[in-house]
Design a protein that fits this description.
GO terms for molecular function: ATP binding; ATP hydrolysis activity. By secondary structure, the chain is an alpha/beta fold. The protein folds into 2 domains: 108 residues, Beta-Lactamase (2-Layer Sandwich), CATH 3.30.450.90; 211 residues, Rossmann fold. It contains 15 helices and 13 strands. Strands 9-8-10-11-7-12-13 form a 7-stranded mixed beta sheet, with helices on both faces.
Protein backbone atom coordinates (compact mmCIF):
# COMPACT_ATOMS: atom_id res chain seq x y z
CA UNK A 1 0.00 0.00 0.00
CA UNK A 2 1.58 3.24 -1.19
CA UNK A 3 0.81 6.84 -0.27
CA UNK A 4 -1.30 7.29 -3.42
CA UNK A 5 -3.42 4.31 -2.39
CA UNK A 6 -3.78 5.69 1.15
CA UNK A 7 -4.91 9.04 -0.25
CA UNK A 8 -7.41 7.25 -2.52
CA UNK A 9 -8.85 5.30 0.45
CA UNK A 10 -9.13 8.46 2.57
CA UNK A 11 -10.90 10.23 -0.30
CA UNK A 12 -13.41 7.36 -0.65
CA UNK A 13 -14.04 7.43 3.10
CA UNK A 14 -14.68 11.19 3.07
CA UNK A 15 -17.05 10.97 0.10
CA UNK A 16 -18.99 7.94 1.38
CA UNK A 17 -21.29 9.95 3.68
CA UNK A 18 -22.20 13.55 4.42
CA UNK A 19 -20.82 15.27 7.51
CA UNK A 20 -17.94 12.84 8.17
CA UNK A 21 -16.02 13.81 11.32
CA UNK A 22 -13.65 10.86 11.94
CA UNK A 23 -12.01 8.06 9.97
CA UNK A 24 -11.32 4.78 11.82
CA UNK A 25 -8.85 2.11 10.68
CA UNK A 26 -8.89 -0.93 13.00
CA UNK A 27 -7.89 -4.59 12.62
CA UNK A 28 -10.84 -6.96 12.15
CA UNK A 29 -13.23 -4.26 10.89
CA UNK A 30 -13.70 -2.62 7.48
CA UNK A 31 -12.74 1.01 6.90
CA UNK A 32 -15.18 3.06 9.00
CA UNK A 33 -16.21 6.69 9.33
CA UNK A 34 -18.12 8.54 12.03
CA UNK A 35 -21.04 10.60 10.82
CA UNK A 36 -23.55 12.30 13.16
CA UNK A 37 -22.04 10.42 16.09
CA UNK A 38 -22.45 6.96 14.52
CA UNK A 39 -19.61 4.68 13.31
CA UNK A 40 -20.50 3.16 9.91
CA UNK A 41 -18.58 0.96 7.40
CA UNK A 42 -17.40 2.24 4.01
CA UNK A 43 -17.77 0.16 0.86
CA UNK A 44 -14.51 -0.19 -1.09
CA UNK A 45 -13.60 -1.70 -4.44
CA UNK A 46 -11.98 -4.18 -4.03
CA UNK A 47 -13.78 -4.78 -0.70
CA UNK A 48 -12.02 -4.71 2.71
CA UNK A 49 -14.40 -6.64 4.97
CA UNK A 50 -11.85 -7.25 7.74
CA UNK A 51 -8.57 -5.31 7.78
CA UNK A 52 -5.50 -7.39 8.60
CA UNK A 53 -2.73 -6.34 11.04
CA UNK A 54 -0.39 -5.91 8.06
CA UNK A 55 -2.83 -3.60 6.25
CA UNK A 56 -3.44 -1.33 9.26
CA UNK A 57 0.31 -1.17 10.00
CA UNK A 58 1.17 -0.19 6.42
CA UNK A 59 -1.62 2.42 6.52
CA UNK A 60 -0.22 3.85 9.77
CA UNK A 61 3.37 3.92 8.48
CA UNK A 62 2.25 5.86 5.41
CA UNK A 63 0.64 8.45 7.68
CA UNK A 64 3.82 8.73 9.80
CA UNK A 65 5.88 9.01 6.58
CA UNK A 66 9.24 7.95 8.09
CA UNK A 67 9.19 10.72 10.70
CA UNK A 68 11.79 9.66 13.27
CA UNK A 69 10.25 11.50 16.24
CA UNK A 70 6.78 10.07 15.57
CA UNK A 71 8.18 6.56 15.10
CA UNK A 72 10.09 6.77 18.40
CA UNK A 73 6.96 8.07 20.20
CA UNK A 74 4.89 5.22 18.79
CA UNK A 75 7.41 2.60 19.92
CA UNK A 76 8.16 4.17 23.31
CA UNK A 77 4.72 5.49 24.33
CA UNK A 78 2.40 3.28 22.29
CA UNK A 79 0.85 6.18 20.34
CA UNK A 80 1.74 9.33 18.43
CA UNK A 81 -0.09 12.46 17.23
CA UNK A 82 0.42 14.07 13.86
CA UNK A 83 -1.29 16.12 11.18
CA UNK A 84 -1.99 14.82 7.68
CA UNK A 85 -2.94 16.76 4.56
CA UNK A 86 -4.94 15.35 1.66
CA UNK A 87 -4.02 17.91 -1.03
CA UNK A 88 -6.97 19.95 -2.20
CA UNK A 89 -9.38 17.95 -0.05
CA UNK A 90 -8.91 18.08 3.73
CA UNK A 91 -6.59 18.27 6.72
CA UNK A 92 -6.62 15.75 9.58
CA UNK A 93 -5.51 15.43 13.20
CA UNK A 94 -4.25 11.85 13.44
CA UNK A 95 -3.58 9.49 16.33
CA UNK A 96 -1.78 6.23 15.55
CA UNK A 97 -1.75 3.76 18.45
CA UNK A 98 -0.87 0.19 19.35
CA UNK A 99 -3.52 -2.24 20.60
CA UNK A 100 -2.71 -5.89 21.37
CA UNK A 101 0.46 -5.57 19.34
CA UNK A 102 -1.37 -4.24 16.26
CA UNK A 103 -1.76 -0.69 14.98
CA UNK A 104 -4.93 1.38 14.62
CA UNK A 105 -5.39 4.91 13.27
CA UNK A 106 -8.07 7.52 13.90
CA UNK A 107 -8.16 10.61 11.68
CA UNK A 108 -10.19 13.63 12.85
CA UNK A 109 -11.21 15.83 9.93
CA UNK A 110 -10.28 19.47 10.51
CA UNK A 111 -12.53 22.20 9.21
CA UNK A 112 -10.88 24.81 7.00
CA UNK A 113 -13.53 27.51 7.49
CA UNK A 114 -13.03 29.47 10.70
CA UNK A 115 -16.31 29.20 12.68
CA UNK A 116 -18.00 32.19 14.27
CA UNK A 117 -19.83 32.41 17.58
CA UNK A 118 -22.99 33.22 15.64
CA UNK A 119 -22.60 30.28 13.21
CA UNK A 120 -22.20 27.84 16.08
CA UNK A 121 -25.04 29.46 18.10
CA UNK A 122 -22.81 29.53 21.17
CA UNK A 123 -24.11 30.97 24.46
CA UNK A 124 -23.55 34.67 25.28
CA UNK A 125 -20.72 33.67 27.63
CA UNK A 126 -18.44 33.07 24.62
CA UNK A 127 -18.84 36.66 23.49
CA UNK A 128 -17.85 37.76 26.99
CA UNK A 129 -14.82 35.45 26.88
CA UNK A 130 -13.67 37.14 23.66
CA UNK A 131 -13.79 40.49 25.47
CA UNK A 132 -11.70 39.37 28.47
CA UNK A 133 -8.33 41.13 28.81
CA UNK A 134 -6.53 38.82 31.24
CA UNK A 135 -6.96 35.72 33.38
CA UNK A 136 -7.48 32.11 32.34
CA UNK A 137 -10.40 30.43 30.57
CA UNK A 138 -10.96 26.68 30.32
CA UNK A 139 -13.16 24.95 27.77
CA UNK A 140 -13.59 21.35 28.90
CA UNK A 141 -15.31 18.15 27.84
CA UNK A 142 -14.67 14.74 26.36
CA UNK A 143 -12.58 14.18 23.24
CA UNK A 144 -14.58 15.18 20.18
CA UNK A 145 -17.02 17.43 22.04
CA UNK A 146 -16.06 20.54 20.04
CA UNK A 147 -13.71 22.31 22.47
CA UNK A 148 -11.22 23.34 19.76
CA UNK A 149 -14.01 24.58 17.49
CA UNK A 150 -15.50 26.76 20.24
CA UNK A 151 -12.08 28.25 21.06
CA UNK A 152 -11.47 28.92 17.35
CA UNK A 153 -14.75 30.89 17.30
CA UNK A 154 -13.59 32.93 20.31
CA UNK A 155 -10.25 33.72 18.63
CA UNK A 156 -12.08 34.66 15.44
CA UNK A 157 -14.18 37.16 17.42
CA UNK A 158 -10.99 38.63 18.89
CA UNK A 159 -9.44 38.74 15.41
CA UNK A 160 -12.38 40.83 14.16
CA UNK A 161 -12.25 43.41 16.94
CA UNK A 162 -8.82 43.79 18.59
CA UNK A 163 -5.29 44.67 17.48
CA UNK A 164 -3.31 42.19 19.59
CA UNK A 165 -0.64 39.51 19.23
CA UNK A 166 -1.95 35.95 19.64
CA UNK A 167 0.28 32.90 20.21
CA UNK A 168 -1.26 29.43 19.86
CA UNK A 169 0.39 26.19 21.04
CA UNK A 170 -1.42 23.27 19.43
CA UNK A 171 -1.15 19.53 18.79
CA UNK A 172 -1.57 19.82 15.82
CA UNK A 173 -2.67 23.22 14.46
CA UNK A 174 -6.34 22.69 13.57
CA UNK A 175 -7.67 26.05 12.38
CA UNK A 176 -5.34 28.34 10.46
CA UNK A 177 -6.31 31.89 11.47
CA UNK A 178 -5.67 34.64 8.92
CA UNK A 179 -4.18 37.96 10.02
CA UNK A 180 -7.11 40.38 10.34
CA UNK A 181 -6.82 42.87 13.20
CA UNK A 182 -4.77 40.37 15.21
CA UNK A 183 -1.30 39.09 14.48
CA UNK A 184 -1.32 35.29 14.79
CA UNK A 185 1.66 33.02 15.40
CA UNK A 186 0.51 29.40 15.51
CA UNK A 187 3.02 26.84 16.78
CA UNK A 188 2.71 23.06 16.49
CA UNK A 189 3.90 20.50 19.04
CA UNK A 190 6.79 18.46 17.67
CA UNK A 191 7.54 20.89 14.84
CA UNK A 192 7.91 24.24 16.62
CA UNK A 193 8.24 23.24 20.31
CA UNK A 194 8.80 20.01 22.24
CA UNK A 195 6.38 20.28 25.20
CA UNK A 196 3.47 22.55 26.09
CA UNK A 197 5.35 23.72 29.20
CA UNK A 198 8.40 24.77 27.17
CA UNK A 199 6.25 26.37 24.47
CA UNK A 200 4.25 28.31 27.08
CA UNK A 201 7.38 29.48 28.90
CA UNK A 202 8.82 30.72 25.59
CA UNK A 203 5.52 32.45 24.73
CA UNK A 204 5.93 34.72 27.75
CA UNK A 205 8.99 36.20 26.01
CA UNK A 206 7.17 36.68 22.69
CA UNK A 207 4.99 39.63 23.82
CA UNK A 208 1.53 38.14 23.23
CA UNK A 209 -1.66 39.48 24.77
CA UNK A 210 -3.50 36.16 24.27
CA UNK A 211 -2.06 32.64 24.54
CA UNK A 212 -3.97 29.53 23.46
CA UNK A 213 -2.63 26.31 25.01
CA UNK A 214 -4.06 23.24 23.27
CA UNK A 215 -4.32 21.27 26.50
CA UNK A 216 -3.22 21.54 30.14
CA UNK A 217 -1.57 18.12 30.46
CA UNK A 218 0.70 18.42 33.48
CA UNK A 219 1.56 20.41 36.59
CA UNK A 220 4.30 22.50 34.94
CA UNK A 221 1.99 23.68 32.14
CA UNK A 222 -0.75 24.61 34.63
CA UNK A 223 1.73 26.50 36.81
CA UNK A 224 3.15 28.52 33.91
CA UNK A 225 -0.38 29.15 32.61
CA UNK A 226 -1.40 30.58 35.98
CA UNK A 227 1.71 32.78 36.01
CA UNK A 228 0.88 34.06 32.53
CA UNK A 229 -2.69 34.87 33.62
CA UNK A 230 -1.38 36.65 36.72
CA UNK A 231 0.94 38.84 34.65
CA UNK A 232 -1.77 40.31 32.42
CA UNK A 233 -2.16 37.72 29.65
CA UNK A 234 -5.40 36.06 28.62
CA UNK A 235 -4.79 32.29 28.58
CA UNK A 236 -7.24 29.97 26.81
CA UNK A 237 -6.94 26.21 27.25
CA UNK A 238 -8.77 22.88 27.48
CA UNK A 239 -9.18 20.09 30.02
CA UNK A 240 -10.86 16.69 29.94
CA UNK A 241 -13.60 16.96 32.59
CA UNK A 242 -17.31 16.10 32.52
CA UNK A 243 -18.63 19.22 34.30
CA UNK A 244 -17.35 22.78 34.74
CA UNK A 245 -17.21 22.43 38.54
CA UNK A 246 -15.12 19.26 38.32
CA UNK A 247 -12.40 21.24 36.52
CA UNK A 248 -11.27 22.87 39.78
CA UNK A 249 -10.58 19.46 41.37
CA UNK A 250 -8.82 18.33 38.20
CA UNK A 251 -6.49 21.35 38.35
CA UNK A 252 -5.82 20.84 42.07
CA UNK A 253 -4.98 17.21 41.32
CA UNK A 254 -1.84 18.32 39.50
CA UNK A 255 -0.36 19.62 42.79
CA UNK A 256 0.64 18.26 46.20
CA UNK A 257 -1.75 18.57 49.15
CA UNK A 258 0.66 21.03 50.82
CA UNK A 259 0.28 23.39 47.86
CA UNK A 260 -3.52 23.24 47.70
CA UNK A 261 -4.21 26.44 49.65
CA UNK A 262 -1.85 28.53 47.53
CA UNK A 263 -3.17 27.06 44.26
CA UNK A 264 -6.78 27.69 45.33
CA UNK A 265 -5.87 31.34 45.94
CA UNK A 266 -4.26 31.63 42.51
CA UNK A 267 -7.15 29.92 40.74
CA UNK A 268 -9.77 32.08 42.48
CA UNK A 269 -8.10 35.27 41.27
CA UNK A 270 -7.21 34.16 37.71
CA UNK A 271 -10.08 31.98 36.45
CA UNK A 272 -12.54 34.00 34.39
CA UNK A 273 -14.73 31.29 32.84
CA UNK A 274 -15.02 27.51 32.78
CA UNK A 275 -17.20 26.06 30.03
CA UNK A 276 -17.89 22.34 29.65
CA UNK A 277 -19.42 20.94 26.46
CA UNK A 278 -21.36 17.82 25.46
CA UNK A 279 -22.68 16.87 22.03
CA UNK A 280 -26.18 15.35 21.99
CA UNK A 281 -28.00 13.59 19.13
CA UNK A 282 -30.31 16.13 17.50
CA UNK A 283 -33.89 15.32 16.51
CA UNK A 284 -33.84 14.82 12.73
CA UNK A 285 -30.13 13.99 12.58
CA UNK A 286 -26.82 15.61 13.43
CA UNK A 287 -25.76 16.76 16.88
CA UNK A 288 -26.41 19.73 19.12
CA UNK A 289 -24.14 21.11 21.85
CA UNK A 290 -25.11 21.49 25.50
CA UNK A 291 -23.11 23.68 27.89
CA UNK A 292 -22.20 23.84 31.58
CA UNK A 293 -20.86 27.34 32.37
CA UNK A 294 -19.24 28.96 35.40
CA UNK A 295 -18.26 32.63 35.41
CA UNK A 296 -16.18 34.26 38.14
CA UNK A 297 -17.94 36.17 40.91
CA UNK A 298 -17.55 36.47 44.69
CA UNK A 299 -19.49 33.26 45.39
CA UNK A 300 -17.41 31.31 42.87
CA UNK A 301 -14.18 32.71 44.31
CA UNK A 302 -15.26 31.66 47.79
CA UNK A 303 -16.07 28.12 46.65
CA UNK A 304 -12.71 27.85 44.87
CA UNK A 305 -10.87 29.14 47.96
CA UNK A 306 -12.60 27.00 50.58
CA UNK A 307 -14.08 24.16 48.55
CA UNK A 308 -17.74 23.37 47.97
CA UNK A 309 -20.07 23.11 50.95
CA UNK A 310 -23.80 22.82 51.55
CA UNK A 311 -25.56 25.69 49.82
CA UNK A 312 -22.29 26.76 48.17
CA UNK A 313 -21.80 24.14 45.46
CA UNK A 314 -20.86 25.19 41.94
CA UNK A 315 -24.13 23.66 40.71
CA UNK A 316 -26.17 25.91 43.01
CA UNK A 317 -24.08 28.96 42.11
CA UNK A 318 -24.64 28.24 38.41
CA UNK A 319 -28.40 27.94 38.94
CA UNK A 320 -28.44 31.32 40.71
CA UNK A 321 -26.11 32.96 38.19
CA UNK A 322 -28.15 32.58 35.04
CA UNK A 323 -28.46 36.36 34.62
CA UNK A 324 -24.64 36.55 34.47
CA UNK A 325 -24.27 33.96 31.70
CA UNK A 326 -23.95 30.86 33.88
CA UNK A 327 -25.93 27.67 33.33
CA UNK A 328 -25.89 24.00 34.24
CA UNK A 329 -26.03 21.14 31.76
CA UNK A 330 -29.44 20.27 33.15
CA UNK A 331 -30.90 23.75 32.56
CA UNK A 332 -29.45 23.83 29.05
CA UNK A 333 -30.72 20.34 28.17
CA UNK A 334 -34.23 21.15 29.46
CA UNK A 335 -34.23 24.20 27.16
CA UNK A 336 -33.10 22.04 24.23
CA UNK A 337 -36.02 19.69 24.94
CA UNK A 338 -38.43 22.64 25.09
CA UNK A 339 -37.24 23.78 21.65
CA UNK A 340 -37.68 20.27 20.24
CA UNK A 341 -33.94 19.86 19.53
CA UNK A 342 -33.59 16.64 21.60
CA UNK A 343 -35.90 13.85 22.66
CA UNK A 344 -36.89 13.10 26.25
CA UNK A 345 -34.77 9.93 26.15
CA UNK A 346 -31.70 11.87 24.98
CA UNK A 347 -32.23 14.59 27.61
CA UNK A 348 -32.36 12.05 30.43
CA UNK A 349 -29.37 10.10 29.06
CA UNK A 350 -27.00 13.09 28.86
CA UNK A 351 -28.02 15.12 31.91
CA UNK A 352 -26.09 15.46 35.19
CA UNK A 353 -29.04 15.15 37.59
CA UNK A 354 -31.80 12.97 36.20
CA UNK A 355 -34.39 14.06 38.79
CA UNK A 356 -33.89 17.76 37.96
CA UNK A 357 -34.25 17.19 34.22
CA UNK A 358 -37.18 14.83 34.74
CA UNK A 359 -39.08 17.50 36.66
CA UNK A 360 -38.24 20.10 34.02
CA UNK A 361 -39.46 17.85 31.21
CA UNK A 362 -42.68 17.04 33.10
CA UNK A 363 -43.32 20.76 33.57
CA UNK A 364 -42.89 21.41 29.83
CA UNK A 365 -45.09 18.46 28.88
CA UNK A 366 -47.74 19.59 31.36
CA UNK A 367 -47.84 23.09 29.81
CA UNK A 368 -48.22 21.46 26.39
CA UNK A 369 -51.10 19.35 27.66
CA UNK A 370 -49.13 16.11 27.26
CA UNK A 371 -49.20 13.18 29.65
CA UNK A 372 -46.38 13.11 32.19
CA UNK A 373 -46.73 9.42 33.14
CA UNK A 374 -47.21 6.07 31.48
CA UNK A 375 -49.43 4.83 34.30
CA UNK A 376 -53.10 4.64 33.27
CA UNK A 377 -56.35 3.07 34.46
CA UNK A 378 -55.97 3.89 38.16
CA UNK A 379 -59.21 4.37 40.10
CA UNK A 380 -60.04 5.08 43.72
CA UNK A 381 -61.62 2.05 45.34
CA UNK A 382 -65.04 2.96 46.68
CA UNK A 383 -65.82 2.35 50.35
CA UNK A 384 -68.41 -0.29 51.20
Amino acid sequence: MRKQEVDYIITRMLDAYGNVSDLNVTVGKPFQVETAGQLVPVEMEPPFRELTPFQTEIFALNLINRNRRLTENLIREGSCDLSYILPGKARFRVNVFSQRGMYSSVLRKLETKIPTIEDLKLPDAFGKIARERNGIVFVTGATGSGKTTSLAAVLNAVNETRNVHVITLEDPVEYSHPHKKCTFNQRELGKDFDTFAHGLRAALRQAPKIILVGEMRDRETVEIGLSAAETGHLVLSTLHTVTAGQSIERLLGFFNIEEEKQIRMRLSSTIRWIVCQRLLPRVGGGRVAAFDIIGNNLRVQESILHGESEGKTFYEIQEAGRAFGMTTFDEYIIELFRKGAVTEETALSYCSRRAVVGRGIDSIKSRRGESTTDITGLELEGRV
